Structure formats: C-alpha cells, structure tokens
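Hello again, I could really use a second opinion on something today. I've dropped the whole record in just underneath, so have a look.
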Amino acid sequence: MSPITLLPFIVLIGAMFLMTRSAKKKQQAAAAMRNEMQPGTGVRTIGGMYATVKEIGDETVLLEVAPGVHAVYAKNAIGAVLSDAEYNRIVHGDTDEELPAVPDDASSLTGATEAAEADAAVAEDAKIDLGKKDGAAEANDAEAAGSTEGTDGKDGKADGGAAEK
C-alpha cells in the first residue's frame, strides 16, 4: 500500500482526535467552573434561570430561586457561575452608573426640529408623480411633443386605442 492511499484515513483519525480533545477541554472547564461554586454565589442554569446557591452536595445543588423558594438541581444543570456584580445587574437591575433619563417627548431628542420641518416641506414639494396616466392623456402628450415613441405603430395610440376605436 502506498502512503497516498492511507492519507484520507490518517486525516480522518486526526480530525476525530482533535474533536474529542476540544470536547474534553470544554468538559474540564465546565467542571472547574462548577467547583468554583460557593454558598451565596449567583448562578445561571442551562435552562436560563438565575438563582443563588444555598447548599452544594456531591451530585446536586440546592438553589434559592426566589426568597424562601428552594429547588434541587443536578450540578450538570449549572450553565454559568456569575460574579456578584453581574448577578445583581441581571436579577435586581442594579447598575453602578446612572442611566440617562428618557424624555416623554421624542421631539426633544432632536436639536433641529425646525430644520427637519423645513426639509420635510422641501421634500414634499419635490415629489415625483409616479401615477399612471390614462390613455387619452398619454396620446395628447405624445402628439403635443411631436413624438411617436411608445406607440404600437397601428394607429398612433400607445395602448392600442381599443376603447376609443
């Protein structure tokens, strides 16, 4: 057998090795993250629920979902261990910085309301009429311009003049 024939098999085995290696690293990182949990730590479950750790067992975790409401979860169900600041920001809406107040009137958000009104008036005057003209008006316009463009060549009418024949 030549080495060229074995090349696809070697590449396949190498790809499988790399995939299992990265999956193993992810599992080890998740296990290390779960080992960081302490009672009082904020966590997010894989289902997206935020809770506080109350007790840690061998395979389970007791979480306080709401004040006085406890639930037992498997350790594998913990998706992320959150820092105190992040947990308080998400759950309680606490922020370190003041958010800007949003005014009730949207016109105060733009500084140039008069300029915007003037631009709207100019734009309204400059609108192009894209409406379809009726056949008689088109024929009159074509005759006035002295042009036969757009006619079908039979009787000089653009739409065939079926209604006017």
About this structure: The longest strand covers residues 50-56.
